[in-house]
Amino acid sequence: MNTSLSFGDQLCLAVRQKQSAVCVGLDPRWDSLPKILRSGINAADLASVTRAMRDYCKLVIDAVAPIAPVLKPQAAFFEQLGPLGMTLLGEIILYSRQAGLIVLLDGKRGDIGSTAQGYAEGYLGRSSAWGCDALTINPYLGEDTLEPFFQVASSRAAGVFVLVKTSNPGSRFIQDLSVDHQTVYQRVAAVVQKRAADTAGSSGYGCVGAVVGATFPQQLAEMRQAMPNAWLLIPGFGAQGGTAQDVQPGFDSQGLGAIVNSSLGIIFAYQQPEYQGMDWQEAVARAARQMSLELPKPSMASK
Predict the structure, then answer these.
(1) Cα–Cα separations (whole angstroms), residue 80 to 83, 84, 85, 166
(2) Spatial contact of 286 and 272, defined as CB atoms under 8 Å apart
(3) Are the CB atoms for 274 and 38 separated by under 8 Å?
(4) Any residues with CB less than 8 A from the CB of 120 and at least 6 apart, and which?
(5) First and final CA of the chain: distance in angstroms?
(6) Are 31 and 271 in contact (CB under 8 A)?
(7) Residue range 118-141, pLDDT digits in tens
(8) Annotated active-site positions, please?
(9) Taking the model in full, what pTM does it have?
(10) Do the beta carbons of residue 262 and residue 294 sit within 8 Å?
(11) Is 117 exposed, middle or buried (0-12, 13-18, 19+ CB in 10 A)?
(12) pLDDT 10s digits, 229-251
């Protein structure tokens, strides 16, 4: 990855090079791993579980790297293994980078003051301790808590994706509330757009993006219009019910501006009927390839 480019331009280049908007969510759930990797291992033996997880994650990365521009490890599934899992997360981030993937850590971090600064400096940029290219962040402690993430991301050619309109049904509880004739998610989107525009590179996209779910297609179309300079991370595809038609409104006229996440539908594809009897790693690769074919293809022309 060319870190001399801004994050928005890096992501644009990666999507164009692979002609794919697939973001693979890496959620290594022990009970769902292939039996061949779990055989003979006691789930209480964290050292053995971690070794099996390491093998699994690396084989998934090997399968999807030729197809997907972005890998999104979910921090929770590493954290639940304790210190061993956190060491594994560091290994997987490095392995993914070496495979040519952009690493977007799904950590949903967010806090006040110096704590936010610590998260930002620790995670963002390839020069950071964790070496992530991007991070998901939570805006619900206030706009001032986003500032450290914005500043560090901009200075290190990294990216942040702010939770705007998430894919879970319960997102309506807060995000759809109306305040001063504006919903909460619309208000957050306005902050994202301003910072995305301020950091826009030659692609037209900045280092600040938004998480907007495929399960709310109408709001997705609204948010694409409201944040023309922001990359959209679209969860909810596949297992959560989102379809290729649902995510279409998240893309701009050139087939850019969005990356679509699938976790269970790709990394556990071998559990699906159409892949039964197939080598599990090949099933992962085929599921990623099929998803890529269903999504809009980016134009090679400049925005």
Answers:
(1) 9, 9, 7, 23
(2) no
(3) no
(4) 135, 148, 149, 151, 152, 153
(5) 20
(6) no
(7) 999 999 999 999 999 999 999 999
(8) 108
(9) 0.95
(10) no
(11) middle
(12) 999 999 988 777 778 999 999 99
> Please, are residues 71 and 104 in contact by the beta-carbon 8 Å criterion?
yes
Tokens 């939570």, located at residue? 138
Q: Count other C-beta atoms under 10 Å from residue 130's C-beta.
A: 21
Nearest to 97 by CA among 55, 122, 61: 61
Which runs of consecutive H residues, i.e. helices, occur in the chain?
Answer: 7-18, 35-38, 46-64, 75-79, 83-98, 113-123, 147-155, 172-175, 184-198, 217-226, 244-247, 264-267, 280-294
Q: Rounded to whole angstroms, how far apart are CA atoms 292 and 148? A: 34
Query: What amino acid is encoded at 214 in this protein?
Result: A
Query: Which of 194, 223, 225, 224 has its CA nearest to residue 208?
Result: 194
Contact 50, 85 (CB under 8 A): yes
Residue tagged 């692609």 (tokens) = 203
> How many other C-beta atoms lie within 10 A of the C-beta of residue 234?
28
Q: Which two tokens stand for residue 91?
A: 């290994």
Residues 6 or more apart in contact with residue 116 via CB below 8 angstroms: 109, 110, 145, 146, 147, 148, 149
Cβ-Cβ contacts under 8 Å for 163 (sequence gap 6 or more): 108, 136, 137, 138, 139, 140, 188, 210, 211
* Contact present, 209 and 258 (Cβ < 8 Å): no
Kindly report the length of the chain.
303
